[in-house]
Every structure is written in structure tokens, then in C-alpha cells.
């Protein structure tokens, strides 16, 4: 069963000058362990599609199932629970909470999911090692570099062992070398079994995916199988 | 991490904002607390003063305040008659007047209090002895200091009717002791005489007239029953219980303090509400990206709202707690200033602490915390996650 399956997804934004269709009739399925790169020019609807797949936005029409469950009819609590347990999110701007340490940022989704304190501590330790930032556990985001912040953000996204990780331009704010390190880390996440959907402008990064989906004007125009 | 722990971290992260908010709420809270102490302070203080005299009833002709209504003629005889009633334990006729002490340096005004010799509760002798007969006077410490006199020395009194220049000869008495007089102001001058002598000082012929009769209820009798018995025995008298006196005071001059207190309480609560609402709204608007990211990571709307509410509770709660010592200190200062008004009894307080004020203070601030958090909570509740994340990236 696919981790996520979208059928004929459409997202229309009502605007003063008239409705704008950001995503138009997109259908796609992401299987366990899959690695999908969403590419296309700015404003083509990549991020909107990612938000729809991540259950943070509601499609104007079409259906979306996560682990076989139709999310269109779910309320806020149930949708939040799906995001918390089944989907991880990595943002271009990291969005780490500045008043928390790196370890506390990673711990936060687990606390929200009701994971026990001892289990949380163990998992935080494990994730800090995974992203090779054990020594930065007690540092605040302001004391970390951009690359380190993104690695902590990835660890936070993995905290509740999601089946799917969504990343919106995860290297967009980083220099080339740091971006490459983050790409390698995401490769490793995928190799360890987590399905990835990544929005990126970086063609080299996109080549790391198994499938490259290209969008234009809200429509999926091509799919390329890379490996 | 609980919503409160989370909110605490948010406040610590922006110490200037947090301190500004807490200090603002504390300042407003101190004023609010003082207004609550003022709203009932005078009534409570007056109640304490009335009860310390040891009398439950005050009887007079009519309902005019003491010294302003008609005199009770033959007050001594009436008091003797009332003492025979089983509902009555003690009766003290009392007369209040104004007088001038003739002094070599400069005459000075005094409050003249008249009572039957040996009356309980009319005054407390601190030095020397009580007045036993006509021609004897008790003075308070301040009069003694003004005269630079001693117990046993002479004193000359003259009537002092407002706006009347008197030509009556001064009335000469001997100081037999120093006393503490009830309802005396901080630096007030009071002398105590027999009823007859007060009448003489006031230009009369030495009649036993009184403004009011202080009546103590006998054990096992209620003030209401004693009042009924007194009014039955002497129909020309109107007796009032201490509670009725208080109600009259509340309906009269003291009601202004209540109204002022109510208006200022409403205004201060309004300020606290606006302050906290603005702080929280600014805080939420600064963190929309973080909030949207947390929501995208699976934090429920309820949890995001709880975080804002917890922050409101922490700011308002800390400010409200800090407001108590500040408010108490401020109330002492204001009380001291107000007691400087001439004629205010030294034992009267405008601001009186009472547990009820603390409870109302807590309830009003709990209400403020909830009300102030409503708008920012609504902002969080209606925050569109995807649109906010998109906007953050674009910006």
C-alpha cells in the first residue's frame, strides 16, 4: 500500500482578481521507501502540492489517502495526529524554536505525541548521533550554523519515525557544500526506509531521487525515473 | 513539554517584552488592588471604630448626625430610665461641641466632648484621673503640648460657634488628666468635660443636654431588640444599631468612594486587558512562521491555542502577584496622605485589607487573562498553515 496517494488533486485560491488554480488535477502515489523530487519553475505549484500531500492544506477537489485513510473528511485533531505520527516536515527556513536547545527541538514532536520521557531521551540521543550533532545537543539555534540547524530540523522531522518525510527546498538557504551534506543526510534517511518527497530547484540534488516529477502551471508535466 | 513550560520559555526568550508586560500588569494591578481596598475600606474601618467603643446603639432625636440635630434635654434622667430596661446594659449620654482654648500665645480650636463623669467608653484616661465634677477637664496629649501645661494646671475655654464672634467670658476649668478620645484625628485637639460644663462652654446654663446616647445591649439581647425597647421607652428617641449607622454612611458620603473605586477598577482592568492583548498579539504575529511550522509538524490547534493562553496566564499571573505587595505599599502611602485631611479620625483607614479584596483581585485578573488571550488565541486558531509557511518563505 502506498504511503500516500493523491487522485486528481486540485487547489484553487480565491483571489480578488479571480480564482487562481495552483494545483490542477494532480495524481501521484508515493510508496514506502520511495524518493520523489518535485521540480519546476517558481510559482508552478510545487510547494502547494507538497502542503497538500503533507495534510497542512486542504484540496479544493480530489482525494488524498495517507496509509489508506482518506484525509479529506478528517477534522483538525485527526489531521494533526496524522502529521504528527506519519509525516515529517523539513522547511527551507528550518523553523527551529529559538528558545529551545537542539535536543529540546528534536524532543518536541515526541512530547506532543505522548512518548515517555525516558524513550524521548533515548531517541533524542539516537537522532543527534544520526545527524552527527551530539556535541551540539545543548546549543540554541542561534549558536548553530545553517547546515547544523537544517540537520537538527531533519532530526526533529524524524523524531516520531514517520513513514514519509516532506522537504520544501531543504537546501535553499544553504551554500553548495552544506547543501550537499544535507542532501547526503536525506539520502541516508531514505536508504534507512523513509519515503521522501522533496521540492527543489537544485537539479543535482533532484538527481539523487528515484523519480523526478516536473510541474508547470499546477500540472504534473513529466515523470523521470532516475534509478 | 507542557503549554506552561513552553510559554515560560517564550517569555524568557524575550525578557524585555516579558518584563514590560509583567511590570505593566503589576502597576495596573497595584492600582486595582488599592481600588478594591478603598471600595470597602472606610466602611470596614468605621465598623471597627464603632465596635471598639463597646456600644451597639446610638439614640438621638431624629436621624441627623451627632451635633447637628436637636439636643436631648435631661439626658441624664433619660439615661437613668433607659438603664432600667432589661435589654440595656449601659447608657452614656454624649455631647459634642466646638470650643476655643484661650491661650496666652494664641487661642486654638478644640473639639469639646461631654459625658457623665465615670462614663465607660467616652474616653480612656491615660494619665491623672477621670472628670468627677464640674470645673474639671481632661485633655488629649496634643492639647497638653500646645498649652505646654501639666495635669493640675488651669484651662480657659470659650464657645466657638462657626461664624459667631463671642463676647461671653471664658470658662475656667482645671486639667485633671490626659485622655485618649475616640474618633480623634491625628493632630486633633480634644477636651473632655461633664455634660453640664459643655453646656456652659456652649453658652447654656449648665443643662444636662446631649447629642446622642450611646447604648450597650445587655447580654442575650440583640441590638434590634434593644433598639425597639429604647424607642418604646422614650418615643422621642430614634435609635440606630451600628449596622444601620454603617448603612447610612454607605448611602451617604462613603458611596462616593465606592463609585470612584468602581470607575477606577473598570479603567485599570481595561488597561490590563489592552496591555496583555497587545503584547500577546505582537508576540503571535512575530511567531506565525514558528506556529505554522509546529502545526505542520503535528501540533494540534488546541495545543497552539493553549500555548498562547498559558503565556497570557503567566504574564497576568506574575503581574497580579507582584501587584499585591506594590499595592499594599501604595495603599499605605495613599492612606497616610488622605489621613492628613483635617478632622479625619486617626484610627480611620481608607484602605483596609480584607480577604474578599484578594479574591476579587484574583477573579478580575483571571477574567482579564482569559479576555486578553481571546484575540491572540483566535489568531492562532485561524492561522492558515500552508499560506503562512508560503508567506514566510516569500518574505
How would you characterize the largest beta sheet of chain A?
A: 6 strands, mixed
In terms of quaternary structure, the protein is: heterodimer
The helicity of chain B comes to: 40-55%
As a percent range, the share of strand residues of chain B is 15-25%
Largest sheet of chain B: 6 strands, mixed, barrel
What number is the mean pLDDT of chain A?
A: 91
Looking at the structure, the CATH topology of chain A is Rossmann fold
- Counting DSSP H or I runs of 4 or more residues, the number of helices of chain A is 7
Question: Which spans of chain B have pLDDT < 50 for at least 5 consecutive residues?
Answer: none
Strand order of the largest sheet of chain A: 6-7-8-3-9-10
Secondary-structure arrangement, i.e. CATH architecture of chain A: 3-Layer(aba) Sandwich
Number of strands of chain B: 10
Radius of gyration of chain B: 31 Å
How helical, in percent, are the residues of chain A? 25-40%
Distance between the termini of chain A: 21 Å
Report on this model:
The complex is a heterodimer of chains A (227) and B (395). Helices cover 34% and strands 27% of the residues of chain A. Chain A is globular, with a radius of gyration of 17 Å. By secondary structure, chain A is α/β, with parallel strands linked by helices. Chain A has helices at 46-53, 76-86, 102-112, 117-130, 146-158, 176-191, 203-206, and strands spanning 4-13, 20-30, 35-39, 61-66, 69-70, 87-90, 164-168, 195-199, 211-216, 219-225. Chain B is of the alpha+beta class and 395 residues long. Chain B has two domains: 3-50 and 254-394, no CATH class; 62-236, no CATH class. Chain B has twelve helices and ten strands. A six-stranded mixed beta barrel of chain B has the order 2-3-8-5-7-6, surrounded by four helices. In chain B, helix 8 runs parallel beside helix 11 (355-381). The relative contact order of chain B is 0.19. The interface between A and B is medium-sized, with 37 and 25 residues.
